[in-house]
Amino acid sequence: MARRWYGLKWVIVITFSLILISCGAEIKDTSYEKEAAGIKKLLKSQVELTNRERQKLMMMQRKRRLLSLLKPIVSPQVNPLNQRITMSFRGLSYEKVFYFLAVKAGLNLVLDPALNEVIPSEDSKITFTFKDMTIKDILDEICRVLDITYQVKNGVLWVKPFAEKFIALDFLPFTKSSSLNIGGDVLGGGGSQEGINNPLTGQFTITGSIEKGVSDIYSQIATAVKSMLSKNGIYIINRSLGLLYVKDRPSRVRAVEEYISKLRKEYLKQVILDVKIVEVNLSKNVNRGIDWLQLTNYLMGNNHISLKSLSAFFSTQPTSQNPVQITISGTPSINAVLNFLAQYGKLRIVSNPIVRVLNNQPALISVGTSIAYIKKIEKQTTSEGGATSTSMTIDTSSLFQGILLGITPHVTANDTVILQVVPIKSDILSLDKAEFENGDYFVTLPKVNLREMTTLIKTKPGDLVIIGGLILEKKGNNENRLEIPLLDRIFRSNQLTSSKTELVILIRVRVD
Question: In 31-177, at which residue ranges do the beta strands (DSSP E only) sit?
Fold first, then answer.
């Protein structure tokens, strides 16, 4: 019985275990699977959201690129005067014509009452035919015939008898003047002498000047504008701002505009002067100066050379030849000219300026030294109360030693350049002192050698102008002695020296 119960016990245990095992296989823990499914769903939604955001961003970028390539299209404003019409009238008053045009253009109309004062009654009716033209062109032609003007402002067509214009002048508000006085009493009898009733004199001078009124461009404009305006016209010139205001009939205003335009074009032309001033210390075997005829053989080539003798020349010292003026056209070379001059002596470049000059304005080139001297000394003695006092009055002056070169260019309509050239060369030879009245009165007597001339030269831009023949002979006294005390007074000699120099001026002209 006990064994049977024992065996039954194990059968029950085994059966219950099998039941538990079968129940464990059927019951599952789904909490993890739900969580995993939720995570997968969340990840999938995040991926889909990211893709949508990426696509949206890409679409925005494409849109921006397209907008950067496309320019905004602005619809142009329609000008009512650009309408094209065809119209024909015969003997119709101008008021009705302007009324018809204003209606066609869709504009309001205002006619200045002063139109009746400037348009005679016999000219108030006009006849015309216009085919397929804009209203603007028709208005321009009608106003040109009637010598009136119009303006469209705020939808209103204003027809007026007078036009107003502000014109920029672009001129500098300064003036230049120049003058020349060459020559004098060539025989030295210019003063009265005791015992001689009619002293022998020979007077030949050349004078000339460019006054301020001639070179004052604003005065010229004022005179010209005043002559071009009608009795009802007005003008105002502001020199500091360079501005001209004109009010008159349109034809008169247009004439002033054309005059200013032409004047500006000519006045603002610049002449570039490349100048070389050369002194040639002539060799001893060169007695008559540079043989300028040889220059034609030296520089002919592709160049055209013209040589003229200048007669308007004055010198305080006799020379062996008159000045000459040479113009070289083609391809002139300044270095070739300098090499030619070097055959006649030692060269010294005195000055080498490049000057820009406005049309008809003078230019001055000065190279030299100003030397002061005592013009006079006066000694005055006064006595007062037994006491004597002495005072001296000294009057000084100055002389210029060097070169003055004045050039005034004028550019013609075909760009030919006319030069007025005035070279003056002065050399101080000595300053001697003279005493009078027992030394109470002193004066200094300067001795100056002067070479001066004036000439007008017609040339083309690029030409090389040469002025030569201004010869100066310098004489000196060289003292030779022994450099031994006491013997230097015995063994010494004086040697007179003489040298000639020729002044040459080279000018190359260009128009800017």
Answer: 84-93, 108-111, 125-134, 149-153, 156-160, 163-168
